[in-house]
């Protein structure tokens, strides 16, 4: 087994000085300990890409950048939680109103695109794509339910450990969906249902012919949400996995 090269905090400070970063004293030593060498210095020494090194010469500059990013995440956290909750509940309310049911099976049959409910004239390969997406959605929802039950999440166990219930309603499922799973569910809705949800949210549909903005916005927000939740660097938007299309802007 290879021996790991360990450096004490003092050794890391010497390493930083050797690389042109002035750092000294007990205060900056504690800052380095608190923020971490790998999370702090190595995470914040570049902008977006590791090839774009920032011209830091003092640990004060690095620490100020870390503090700025931390405050930015604190500012965004509450707003992000509100947006996630609001989007889920608006979509949930619209879907249940349109299908007149809280049954997930009714949602699958009436609100989710599939081979059988594809619009007239839809190509065979597109019909099969719809059906495959529906099956993938059913699998991801079932996996989410199983994981929640395994962790004894009362939002789910209530419906399985009670003889008066025979299925988990849609509103309980929405409570446990990740932003990624929620975005995928929206992408699987029929175009008519996506339009109804989009209008309920207030999305401008004038440049959204195929009603895709709804789930694309959620995917974009998911990347930000996860970066905040995992305390990743946010201020330079390195977390984003997709470039917004012109209609999204």
From TrEMBL:
It comes from the Bacteria. This is Abortive infection bacteriophage resistance protein. It comes from Agathobacter rectalis. The lineage of its organism: Bacteria, Bacillati, Bacillota, Clostridia, Lachnospirales.
